[in-house]
């Protein structure tokens, strides 16, 4: 039970770090792609909003946190794969200047 609580806490902390780091670099970024219009409150984004932003080719990164075999089988076009259990070691691979959506 303690291990599960620790994993849940780790997920929340990583998500918070990703959101905070993404918010800091938005103003300085210059890109042809539009910035995503994500809600500013909360850590969860409705899938319909993500789909809308994908359709308008907004500049954000999608990270598939499922195991690699699941990612290879099927994934969102343009998503990268960093399995959940590797996130603590690999989070530095993520950009600090754009929004990141984990699924």
Q: Total strand count, please?
A: 3
The helix/strand class is alpha/beta
The percentage helix is 40-55%
> What is the mean predicted local confidence, pLDDT?
76
The main sheet comes to: 3 strands, parallel
Measured on Cα atoms, how large is the radius of gyration? Answer: 14 Å
What global shape is seen? globular
Please count the helical segments: 4
Low-pLDDT segments? 23-31
CATH fold descriptor:
Oxidized Rhodanese, domain 1
Kindly give the count of domains: 1
End-to-end Cα distance, whole Å, is: 24 Å
Q: Please report the first level of CATH classification, the CATH class.
A: Alpha Beta
Identify the strand order in the major beta sheet. 2-1-3
Level-2 CATH architecture: 3-Layer(aba) Sandwich
Helices and strands, in order, run as HHEHEHE
Output the keywords.
103 residues, globular, 3-stranded parallel beta sheet, alpha/beta, single chain
Short description:
By secondary structure, the chain is an alpha/beta fold. It contains 4 helices and 3 strands, in the order H-H-E-H-E-H-E. Strands 2-1-3 form a 3-stranded parallel β-sheet.
């Amino acid at each position: 039970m303690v291990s599960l609580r620790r994993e849940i806490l780790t997920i929340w902390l990583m998500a918070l770090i990703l959101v905070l780091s993404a918010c800091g670099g938005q103003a300085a970024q210059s890109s042809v792609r539009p910035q995503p219009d994500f809600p500013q409150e909360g850590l969860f984004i409705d899938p319909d909003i993500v789909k809308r932003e994908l359709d308008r080719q907004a500049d954000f990164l999608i990270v598939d946190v499922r195991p690699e075999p699941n990612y290879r089988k099927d994934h969102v076009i343009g998503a990268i794969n960093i399995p959940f259990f590797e996130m603590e070691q690999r989070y530095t691979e993520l950009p600090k200047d754009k929004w990141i959506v984990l699924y």
